[in-house]
Amino acid sequence: MAKDSTLIAQPEFRDAKRDLDEVVRQCGLVVLGKQQRLRLALSCMVAGGHLLIEDIPGVGKTTMAHALACAFGLKYQRIQFTSDLLPADILGAAIFDKKNSEFVFQAGPIFNQLILADEVNRTTPKTQSALLEAMEEQQVTVEGNTHPLPDPFFVIATQNPSHQTGTFPLPESQLDRFLMRLSLGYPDREAERQLLTGEDRRQMLDTLPAVMPPARLLELQRSVIDVHIAEPLLDYVQKLLAFSRADNRFVHGLSPRAGLGLVKAARAWALVDGRSFVIPEDVQSVLTAVVGHRLSLKNDANATSEAVANLLIENVDIL
Amino acid sequence: MTSLVNALRSSTVLRGPAPAALSRRAPLVQAQRLSSSVLYGCGASVILMLAPQMTRTPAWESAILMLAIVWKLFSVWRRTTLPRWGLSVLALLLASGIFATFGTFVGRTAGSALLMAMLVMKYVETRSVRDATIVVYLAYFVIVTNFLFNQSVVMFAYMLVSVWVCTLTLMNLHTRAPSPSIMSRARWTLRCVLEALPIALVLFVLFPRISGPLWGIPEDRHSATTGLSDSMSPGMISSLSRSARVAFRVKFSDNPPDYESLYWRGPVLWHYDGITWIAARHADFPRDSVRLGVAGQPVDYTLTMQPHGRRWVFALDVPTRIPSGTQLTQDLQMLDSDPVLGVKRYSLTSYPSYQTSGELGKFERVAALQLPPGQNPATRALGTRIAEEASSPAQIVTDTLAYFRERPFVYTLSPPLLGEDPMDEFLFSSRRGFCEHFASAFVVLMRAAGVPARVVTGYMGGEMNALGSYLLVRQSDAHAWAEVWLSGRGWVRVDPTAAVAPTRIASGIEQALNDLDELPLLIRPDARYLRNAALLWDSLNNRWNNWVLGYGPEIQKRLFGGMGFGKYTAAKAAAALVLGIACLLAIISIAPLLKSRERNRILRAYRIYCRKLAIAGLPRRPHEGPLDYAQRAREVFPSHAEQIDLITKLFVGLFYADKPQEQWQTQLSTHARSLRVRKKRGARAEAKAAS
Q1: CATH topology of domain A20-212
Q2: Could B623 and A314 be called an inter-chain contact, meaning their C-beta atoms sit closer than 8 Å?
């Protein structure tokens, strides 16, 4: 449902909204009919979180990640995860330099601003954890030397639904590292028709200009903390957390980290909307993406994120 | 152990990432290191702390400290670390330099010079959060030392800003990226400082005051003696008159007395050595040989002395009621028991018209007729001649004043220098002088004529500041006059300056002088705007002096009684202190509660609106946000769309936005109450369909 946010637009963040709308518009040229998902992905980046996209192959996961990288002018690297990928292949390794007789650190593909970790659940847990460690700490330690990763640094990981063959599903603790999980879903009829008749989206990607410099993105990330979150709204978030913990339909309740993530994502969503304060609708808008991968139902293991989030939303009064 | 850790860590290259526990060590150490922006901010605040101190430290130290800070900033910029030996050498150099300059590390100036050197050296070696924290704490201490030197309003404001910047630096130290923007951090710290102010105020008002400075700092004894001294030689008062510094301020309870009677009595000078007049010791004369008789209206006033490092207080001639701790000498000087080192207030009563009676004591008569033998022969001869021609001592006085009036004497701030026999030279050749010349010549003439006489120094007049309705007496109002003993009338004030320049006595020095360029700019009549601004500034200073600096134990006791606590005791003061702070903390902690009450009022208004829509067939779902609900309501009740929008806007603005406005609250209530929605058939079904 489109929110009537013009009602309460704030002058301070009008610039932010204008810039971010431009990003959404441009990415929308490539990723057709996924405006809402793009906005969520954008909020995730503005909140400084990592994004997990889970869907069947061929629905545009890679294209979306690539389009976002292009729009922000970020240094982009795609890493295809396979079952024989080793940590050093991602992080880099110390290589012996014959001329100077010393070990020189050769940076791996992770030293980029936006990493697309494709099919992250096809590799072994060891390699998965190497990536996730780097994500968490924004630095890589090899042979006792610490190398900071660039800023901004994002990981957009994609994974196939875990019931497909040849996968090592990410455990809950590692899913928790991603601020949001999205699934793209099939395009609607109109978008699919456009896709089928229009030019090749991969080629279009090469011609996309950067609409926002990385410095501006960092600036927006910093202003997320200035988005006001009122006491009644914090009450609402806490009621949501408490419900997830008290209700026996959930396997586990939401962790404090999930609560933090929810608040941060809601702030970023408000910012993307051009507002300087958070309203309950913001929390509800990001709730599916933020809690979908952190909650599961006892009696229905295959429940969708939407179903889980709706259970939460519908049982908590906003006032 | 370390080698084992290293072995494990190096193996991570080959076998994937290190176990979490080991790799976490690195970020912990990292967290202690400071980012360069924090170091720059720290440097900026250190410079801010040092700025007011720089004028007091020796120039070489200021230069070295500045260079050291620049060196540090440069090394932060180049990301290099400073050599340890360099720091040690610099520290030793500074310490020995300070010792060489002052000969000690103790005392006000030497102590603060050392403290500053320590602050800068600590900053220069700062690398970790811990170092920087110490720098900030030291900086707080350095801020306080400012008050040892300067207690003006400007300094107070500067110190508040310094405290704010210091706190901001402290906050920067402890926030990690991504953190709130520097502006919002500045706002938060400003709020912290402002919230602390009322507590500081309670402590200021109720904490037991100690009279005099808390620390007996040796340097204070001999420094800062300004204004009149206990001796007078030609040129001394005229050089004082070039200063616009404030000597003291007077607040009268009723109307101020006439300008001509504003004689502020200071040291009385008896002994003349031919050039210089010197005060008598108080033990010189037996007490109570002269009695005081008063007439006319008493004048009650409060006098606020600026510190001048001497014991005397310039009371209006002649004080009859003086506060305890002060005394009135035999020659009617008011003395405090201690030198006036800080701003001090006195409540006094004086009688501008008075008479002394009784007999002049033997010792006093001798002292009042003393003249150095062999000096100023022409003057003495003139005195003797006047005495021979006159019939009575009173006649001698009038004849002498007539002498001054009839000869071409000039009242000027820049009299020529006088030689061996200054009075002869002044009376018969130069004839240009300031009040001290006239007073001095007059008393010498009187003594030569056999009339006991003495010189009185002090201030004459002052400037009324209409802004604070108080009298401002500057150093430029310094004056000297004479007193003669006439039997039957006692000591009588005679002002020979009045004979030469009557306007000096009637309306002040700036009217009496022709060469205005000699006067300080601030009191010249032609600089009116400057003068008004100066008066405004001075009235601010006066309030500061009265309410802050002059707040001593006496006033505290009175205030304590005035607040209804009765007599001041230490236990009561402590109880009041604790109570006051507890009240403030309670207010600060109650504020959120008041806010939640306000929140309830907003909610109540919003619920009225929801109930009205529910009655009309469109209840709000509990999980529905205000905007979602408004959208649904607009579709069902398009005719009320405007009102629904307005109410939603006000509610969201009040309840969730960061800057709610007061008037929204009443607007929301009125609109919610005035909303009239007609029940619509099938609204419920429609709403269901819409969702």
Answers
A1: Rossmann fold (3.40.50)
A2: yes
Q: State chain A's mean pLDDT as an integer.
A: 85
Amino acid at B283: A
Please give the pLDDT value at position B9.
37
* Type of residue numbered B320: T
Task: Please give the pLDDT value at position A140.
Answer: 87
- Chain A 231-290, CB below 8 Å of chain B: which residues? 231-233, 276-281, 284
φ, ψ for residue B541 (rounded to 5)?
-60, -40
Match domain A227-319 to its CATH number in 3.90.1150.100, 3.30.2130.10, 3.10.450.50, 1.10.8.80: 1.10.8.80
Mean pLDDT in residue range B151-171: 89
- Report the distance separating Cα B168 and Cα B165, nearest Å: 5
Q: Is the pLDDT of residue B172 over 70?
A: yes
Q: Write out pLDDT tens, residues B250-285.
A: 988 888 888 888 899 988 888 888 888 888 776 566
Minimum Cα–Cα distance from A315: chain B residue: B623
* Domain regions of chain A by residue span: 20-212, 227-319
Is the interface score ipTM higher than 0.85? no
pTM over 0.90: no
CB pairs under 8 A between A and B: 121
Contact A79, A121 (CB under 8 A): no
> Has residue B548 got a pLDDT over 50?
yes
Burial B318-327, CB ≥16 within 10 A → b, else e: bbeebeeebe
What lies within 8 Å, CB to CB, of B555 at 6+ separation is B345
Q: What is the pLDDT of residues A14-50, one digit of tens each?
A: 778 888 888 888 888 888 888 888 999 999 999 989 9
Cβ–Cβ gap B645/A129 under 8 Å: no
Closest CA to B222 of B341, B101, B345, B100: B341
Which residues of chain B have a Cβ shorter than 8 Å from any chain A Cβ?
6, 9-10, 12-14, 16-18, 20, 23, 26-27, 30, 178-181, 184, 592, 595-596, 599, 603, 606, 622-628, 630-631, 645, 648-649, 652-653, 655-658
Residues of chain A contacting residue B645, judged by C-beta atoms under 8 Å apart? 7
* Cβ within 8 Å of residue B71, ≥6 positions away: B82, B124
Instruction: Specify the pLDDT at position B4.
Output: 36
Residue B686: pLDDT band by 50, 70, 90 thresholds?
Answer: low
* pLDDT, mean of residues A209-214: 85
Q: Where are the beta strands (DSSP E) in B490-603?
A: 490-494
Neighbours of B238 (CB within 10 A): 19
The helix (H) or strand (E) run that includes residue B536 is helix B528-544
Residue, of A3 and B116, whose pLDDT is higher: B116
The C-alpha atoms of residue B393 and residue B365 are separated, in whole angstroms, by: 15
pLDDT at B177: 54
Are residues A94 and B13, on separate chains, in Cβ contact within 8 Å?
Answer: yes
Handedness of CA B202, B204, B207, B209 (dihedral sign): negative
User: In this structure, how many other beta carbons lie within 10 angstroms of the beta carbon of residue B10?
Assistant: 15
Residue type, B120: V
Instruction: Report d(CA A128, CA A144) in Å as an integer.
Output: 21
- Contact between B623 and A315 (Cβ < 8 Å): yes
Q: Angle between the B182-206 and B570-615 helix axes, to the nearest 10 degrees? A: 140
Q: Which two tokens stand for residue B291?
A: 């009695």
**Which residue carries 């004048």 as its tokens?**
B299
Interatomic CA distance for residues A115 and A109, integer angstroms: 8
pLDDT digits (tens, 9 = 90+) for B26-51: 343 334 567 787 888 888 888 888 88
Rg (CA), chain A: 20
Between CA B36 and CA B44 the distance in angstroms is 12
Give dist(CA B655, CA B673) in Å, integer: 18
B653 to chain A: which residues are within 8 Å by CB?
8
